[in-house]
């Protein structure tokens, strides 16, 4: 892409204090209203409306948290840290999560990446690797990675349990620095206080059910952002950051009524190419690029039907260059 166009894009679509303030204040109003609705109707049948609404608002809260980690939500790094940490306390996720997420951007689709990081966050094995596993482990992995478990049980385990153990699980890409330790302590302390308040006001179950479904939706979205066909999986010499965004990240056709809650993350191809563009500007950025360049010609567009079908993609087949299901791998191994 021409450097002048790239400069224009950032100038037009980067965050500003005004745009961030407008988005965050309105979000706080909507989030607070959804929490109040859950409280007011905690013993009413109307909870079937208020709890799903809180689920969607928590999803948007996570996307603000995510943008703060990229330092894109506001122009100020310290302000991003404060907002991100505050959001993280509602999401059972320390702000240091973003160090791990940063590695995802540097390695998505790079099967030989120098960081020794996962080339896919939701696909662990190629077909050949899977077929070479011990039969017992193979069976356990198939149970774990089947969509019924992976998109229902694993989200709970990841957010409700693993995020409490950040320090114990620290490694090369998520080092336990002093700042990380402080962040972890603050996040868990805030979480404990919040959970007590929810319990005291009789919305403990309501809130945690809402957040559980937020985690499930998040897992489904994240899987579909990078797991689709044709797949973008390359060795280190062929992989590029730009192609990882344009060919290895999808454009999900989210229904219009959900767009406020997904905050532009469906334009994931733009996000991976331009991480400093905030989610609330991604749609405008996408439309501008589509109108003025040919950059988006090869972007994979996913319908909601595609999103569902992709949940059954569990392995990567190197011979065909496609993500495949367990049943496909078994047929190939006959």
Automatic annotation (TrEMBL):
GO terms for biological process: lipid metabolic process. Keywords: Membrane, Transmembrane, Transmembrane helix. Residues 49-291 form the Fatty acid desaturase domain. One of its GO terms (cellular component) is membrane. One of its GO terms (molecular function) is oxidoreductase activity, acting on paired donors, with oxidation of a pair of donors resulting in the reduction of molecular oxygen to two molecules of water. The chain crosses the membrane at residues 20-39, 45-66, 78-97, 148-169, 204-222. InterPro entries: FA_desaturase_dom, Fatty_acid_desaturase. Pfam families: FA_desaturase. PANTHER family: FATTY ACID DESATURASE (PTHR19353:SF73), FATTY ACID DESATURASE 2 (PTHR19353). This is Fatty acid desaturase domain-containing protein.
């Amino acid at each position: 892409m021409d450097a002048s166009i790239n400069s224009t894009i950032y100038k037009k679509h980067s965050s500003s204090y005004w745009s961030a303030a407008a988005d965050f204040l309105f979000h706080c109003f909507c989030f607070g209203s959804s929490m109040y609705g859950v409280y007011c109707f905690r013993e009413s049948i109307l909870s079937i409306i208020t709890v799903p609404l809180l689920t969607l608002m928590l999803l948007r809260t996570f996307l603000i948290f995510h943008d703060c980690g990229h330092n894109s939500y506001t122009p100020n790094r310290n302000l991003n840290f404060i907002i991100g940490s505050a959001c993280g306390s509602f999401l059972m996720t320390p702000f240091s999560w973003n160090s791990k997420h940063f590695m995802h951007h540097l390695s998505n689709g790079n099967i030989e990446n120098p960081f020794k990081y996962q080339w896919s966050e939701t696909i662990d094995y190629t077909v050949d690797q899977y077929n070479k596993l011990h039969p017992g482990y193979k069976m356990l992995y198939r149970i774990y990675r089947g969509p019924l478990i992976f998109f229902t049980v694993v989200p709970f385990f990841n957010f409700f349990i693993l995020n409490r153990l950040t320090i114990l699980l620290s490694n090369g890409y998520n080092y336990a620095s002093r700042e990380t330790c402080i962040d972890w302590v603050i996040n868990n302390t805030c979480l404990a206080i919040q959970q007590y308040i929810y319990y005291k006001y009789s919305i403990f179950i309501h809130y945690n059910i809402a957040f559980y479904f937020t985690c499930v939706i998040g897992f489904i979205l994240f899987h579909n952002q990078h797991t689709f066909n044709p797949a973008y999986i390359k060795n280190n010499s062929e992989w590029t950051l730009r192609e990882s965004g344009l060919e290895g990240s999808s454009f999900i056709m989210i229904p219009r009524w959900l767009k406020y809650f997904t905050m532009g993350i469906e334009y994931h191809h733009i996000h991976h190419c331009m991480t400093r563009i905030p989610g609330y500007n991604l749609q405008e950025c996408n439309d501008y690029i589509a109108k003025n360049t040919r950059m988006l010609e090869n972007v994979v567009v996913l319908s909601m039907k595609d999103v569902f079908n992709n949940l059954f993609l569990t392995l990567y087949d190197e011979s065909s260059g496609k993500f495949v299901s367990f049943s496909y791998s078994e047929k190939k191994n006959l």
